[in-house]
Structures are given as C-alpha cells and as structure tokens.
Amino acid sequence: DTIQMVQTGATTYAFVPANLTIKVGDVVVFKGVSGAGHDVAFYEDSIPPGAKAVLDAQMKTGPQPLATDMIPDGSAVSISFAGAPTGTYKFFCIPHQAMGMKGTLTVQ
C-alpha cells in the first residue's frame, strides 16, 4: 500500500489517499511526490495501546518521537505494521500540519 505526499496548491498539501485501511502485517510506503519534502508523524494519543513500541522500533531518527526523517520528493519510507495492534492510527506531516496535511490508517 502506498500513500503519496503531494503539494496540491500554492500552500496546500495532502496525503493521497488520506484514509487507508490495511491488515496487520502490511507495509505502508509513504512516497514523497511534490512539495519539497514531508515527514510522517503519528499522534501518540491517537494510536492503539501497544502501537508505540512497534512504530518506535522503525522511527528512531526523526525530529520527535513517532516521526520519520524528512522524505524528499522521489524518496520513500516504508513502515511495517507487523505485530501492530488493530485500530486507528492518526498521522500528520510536522511542517504542514497547520495546512491540514493529515491522515488516518485503519489496521484490521
């Protein structure tokens, strides 16, 4: 499953699709397409209990807990949901959060 990170207007940005349903064990690829770089950060209070450990193991170098490094256009970061608890995972792009760049993953 791939989520593209795109610039949609002069000052608007989006995850496409913004809402995605996956299965436990799936890998989600966050691909930088346009907008000169984005990151993916999960809201700690908006992920299922037990999910932080699964995500932390893969997101060790970002600017804050539960965040990736910046992903330049043309690059991608894969996040595995192997062993992840089911539920809703809300995420956002730190630099573009105020512009509404956010999304939701549902793990079944």
Descriptive overview:
Helices cover 6% and strands 36% of the residues. The chain contains one helix and eight strands; from the N terminus they run βββββαβββ. It has one helix spanning 51-56; strands spanning 2-7, 13-16, 19-22, 27-32, 41-42, 76-80, 87-92, 102-107. The two termini are 14 Å apart. The chain is globular, with a radius of gyration of 13 Å. The chain is mainly β and 108 residues long. The longest helix is centred in the middle third of the chain and has 6 residues, at 51-56. The relative contact order is 0.31. It has a four-stranded mixed beta sheet, with no helix packed on it.
Q: Write down how many β-strands occur, each being a DSSP E stretch of 2 or more residues.
A: 8
The span between the termini is: 14 Å
What letter string, H or E per element, gives the SSE order?
EEEEEHEEE
Average of per-residue pLDDT values:
96
Strand and helix map with partners:
Blueprint: E1 2-7, E2 13-16, E3 19-22, E4 27-32, E5 41-42, H1 51-56, E6 76-80, E7 87-92, E8 102-107
Parallel strand pairs: 1-4, 3-8
Antiparallel strand pairs: 1-2, 4-6, 5-7, 7-8
Short description:
It is built from one helix and eight strands; from the N terminus they run βββββαβββ. It has 108 residues and is mainly beta. It has a four-stranded mixed sheet, with no helix packed on it.
What are the main properties of this structure?
globular; about 110 residues; four-stranded mixed β-sheet; mainly beta; 1 helix; 8 strands
